[in-house]
What does this fold into?
Amino acid sequence: MRLSPAIARLVDALRQLPGVGPKSAQRMALFLLERNRRAAANLADALQNALATVRRCRQCRLLCENELCEICAHSERDHSLLCVVESPADVFAIEQSGAFRGVYFVLSGRLSPLDGIGPEQLGLVDLQARLANGGINELILATSATLEGEATAFYLSEMANEAGITATRIAQGVPIGGELEQVDSHTLSLALAGRKRL
Ligand SMILES: [Zn+2]
It folds into this structure.
């Protein structure tokens, strides 16, 4: 038996979510329709409301409900220190550490020409304009330690150089509490290369 067109559409929509395969999408759809219609209505309403009110911050591209996000609008943050990250989740992780008082730029991805993700998709034109506007002393590159993350960091460092701004890369190495023998050799070589004088 086939799913009715409305259920099939819902299953298809749920499959767009990260990590949701056809079976879990079907389980979710049937749960919402059969067992918890109130939760289903609430989900539909919350989604519609979020779509109508949430947008990207004009300055950093973080998701927020005003023209500027809380961080960009904060006068006590150091606006000369700009940290580039791949996703809003990275901003939340850094904010939770409490170790950074500067501002951010969210790429929402990393350069990946094979997947059709170029400078335009990552909003790099906006970033370039922001660098050219002055007021930024340091661009901190906090993209991931993957091949694409490194390539993105390299591209951004060239952009910073052109604008006469210092670019720095976050340190990579042995995690706190980590045993050396369990760290892969690439990480270990980065940790050695990035050693500090004590
Ligand atoms: Zn912002």
In short: Residues 1 and 161 are 62 Å apart (CA to CA). The first strand starts at residue 55 and ends at 56. The chain has a mean pLDDT of 92.
